[in-house]
Amino acid sequence: MLQVISAIVIGYLLGSIPFGLLLTRLAGLGDVRKIGSGSIGATNVLRTGNKALAALTVILDAGKGVTAVLIGSIWGLDAMLAASAAVVLGHMYPVWLGFRGGKGVATALGVLGVIAWPVALVAALIWLAVAILFRYSSLAALVAAAVAAAYAGFVVDTERALLIAAIALIVIARHHENIRRLIAGRESRISFTKG
Questions:
Q1: CA 95, 172, 140: angle at the middle one, nearest 5?
Q2: Alpha carbons within 13 A on the beta-carbon side of 177
């Protein structure tokens, strides 16, 4: 039990590092929470016009997920699964930012890359296809999360499949404002060419 608790704490603290906010401030672009959706994630960083910074945010946010899973795995399956959930929640609800963080997509992808790489690959390809076709990052994330949860049920064991389904549900729930904007036709599109 102590190992599981340790994995949760480490995972949460790793997840709560706000790379998008830190990088934009270091680059002199101000507080990324004051533009676009107000999120600290890569999609909002992309709205600054700096594609390289957005790409680095994706890498670092995914890296948090990878690192948390690997640390948790040292203590066994239960600790690994606990760390996996905690790192995503840490990104979404970081204590340092009043529990207002990102949407968890890149961090969840990092988790998937370790615990179920075929699911991560499918989710990434689905995200990319939907984002290119419709230019809505939120729609891409919603579709990718749903597909990942469904696909996991066929290719991984029950414990991992349940975790992936839970993470997918949390990611979808975290996009509630985006869902409302998509329905209303007011969601912002992303650009792959600006900057």
A1: 115
A2: 8
Q: Residue 191: its pLDDT value, please? A: 75
Q: What is the mean pLDDT of each run of 10 residues along the chain (195 residues)?
A: 96 98 94 89 90 96 98 97 98 95 97 98 97 95 98 96 97 96 92 60
How far apart CA 89 and CA 27 sit, in angstroms, is 26
Judge whether 84 and 10 are in contact, CB under 8 Å: no
Q: Looking at residue 195, what is its pLDDT? A: 46
| Stated pTM of the model | 0.94
Contacts of 98 (CB under 8 A, 6+ apart): none
Q: How far is 78 from 28, CA to CA, in rounded Å?
A: 41
- Could you give the CA distance from residue 97 to residue 117 in angstroms, rounded to a whole number? 31
How is the chain split into domains, by residue range? 2-184
Q: Would you put residue 73 in left (φ > 0), alpha (ψ -120 to 50) or beta?
A: alpha
* Backbone dihedral angles phi then psi of residue 50, each to the nearest 5 degrees: -100, 95
Model pLDDT, residue 78: 96
Residues with Cβ within 8 Å of 132's Cβ and at least 6 positions away in sequence, in order, are 192
